[in-house]
Amino acid sequence: MSASYQLERARRGVWPLAVGAVVAVAHIPEFAHRLLDGDEAIYGSIAVLMNMGGDLYGSGGVDNKPPGIFWLYALAFRVFGAYQMTAIHAAGFAAMAATSILIYFIARDVAGRGAGLLAALFYGVLTAAGNPRLLATNTELLMMLPLSASVLLTLRRRWLWAGALLVAAGAFRQSAAANVVVLAVGVLWLEPAERRLRAAYLCAGGLAMALVAGGLAIELTSSLTGFWRWTVQTLTGYASLNWTPAVLWPRAQDSIVPFVLDMAVLWIAALALATRWRLLDVKARLMVLWLAVGMTGSVAGGHLSWHYFIQAMGPLAVVGALAFVRFHPRRMIAAAAVAGIVIPAAAWWAFDLTADPLTYDFAAPVPKHEAVAAYIASHTSPTDRVFVWGDWPALYVESDRVMACRFPGFLRGFARGSSAPPDSWDVAPDVWPVLRSDLDAHPPALIVDTSPADWSDFARYPMGDYPTLADFVAGGYHLAAVVDGVVIYARNGG
Q: Quick check: pTM over 0.85?
C-alpha cells in the first residue's frame, strides 16, 4: 500500500469527522437549558401521566399530536427518571445525527460523496441556526429520521419499506403524509413502465402493513378512539384558526421570514438548481420535488413556527449541496457563501446559549416562571398533583410535579388575545366534564392561575368565565399566594 494511498484514505476519513464536529458544536446550546420550548413540557407532562398507567388520549394525557413523540418521552422517562430532559435532548440530538447520515447517503446517491458530506453538514447547521425552539426534541425533528429513510429507499427503489417508513414518519407528525407525493412520483420516474404496477403494489403494501401495525400499537398502548378524536378530528378546526391574516403575518415574521433570510445562501443555491430543471437527471429532479413537498408540509397547518420548517430543511440541505457540487463556485463566491451561512449560525448559537427559551420572545416584563415553579415545589410534596390554568405546562416540569388533569394546557395554538371567541379544540364542550372528572379524581394541592399575570396572552380568559373551574375553586380552595402576578390557590385544610 503506497504512502499516497494511505494519505488519501486518511484525508477521506478526516472530512466526515470534521462535519460531525461542526454539527456537534452547533447543537451545544440544546444542552444548556432544561426546557427548550413549551412543547417539550407538553410531551413531558403527558409522558409522566402515561408512565403512571394512564392511556394516551385518555386519562394519560391529551394532545393533537400522533403518538410517536409521547412513546419516546415515556420510554426515556422510564429509563432515566421523570422529567429527565437531558436524556430527551440526547435522544433528539441522536435523531438529528442519524438523519444527517441518511441525508449524506441521499445526496451521495444523487451526486457523489462530496455532495453527501455537504448535505449532512447543511442539515446539521440548519437544524441549529434558529431560535431555541428549533433545537427542541420535537415532532418535526423525530419525523425527519424515518421520512429521510423513506426518501433514501425510494431512490434505491425499495418500495415496500419506503412506504412503511413513510407511515412511521406519520407516527410523529401528520404532515409527513405530504411525502406520499414523492413516493408516487418516484415510482413513475424511477421505474420502467413494465415495473411500475408492481412497485405501486409494494408501496401500497408497505403503507397498509405499517398502518395496521400502527393501529394495533395505538390500541395496545393508548386509546384508538381518543387518537381519532384528538389528532384527526381536530385538524380541520386547528388549521382554520391559523389561516387568518391576523395570525399568519406575525408568525411568518417570526419564522418563515428569518428562516429564508438567514439561510438565503442555501435558498439561492437551491432555486438556481431548480431553474435548470431540464438539465437535471431524474434523481435530482426528485430532490427538488421533495423540497417543494417539504415546504408545503411545513406551512400546511398555518402555524408557521420555525421548527415546523425542519420538514423542509432535509431536502433544502440536499438540493443546496447538489447545487454547490454542480456549479463549482469560484473561490470568492464560495467564501461569501460560507460567510453567509456561518455568520447567522454563529449569531443564533450565541443567542440560544444565553437566552431563556421560554421567554425570549416576550415583551418586558417577562414571566418569572422559575419563581412560580419554586413556590409550587416548596409548597407541595412529590406525590401531590397541581393544576395550571393557562398555556404554561413548563411549570409542571420545572416544579417536578404531576398535572392533576389530562390537559397540559389550554387554547394551545389559538390566537390568544385576539377578538376571536375562545373555541379552540382543547376548550370544546366535551372537555369540561372530563376536566372536572379528572380534578375530582385527583384534587390538586395547588391551582395556579396564569391569566391575571397575562402570561402567554391569557388575560382575556379568567377562570371565572369558565363555570367548571370557578365552581371547583370556590368549593374547596382559598387564595394562598400571588407570585409575579400569578394567583395560586391552595386546597382548604391543606
A: yes
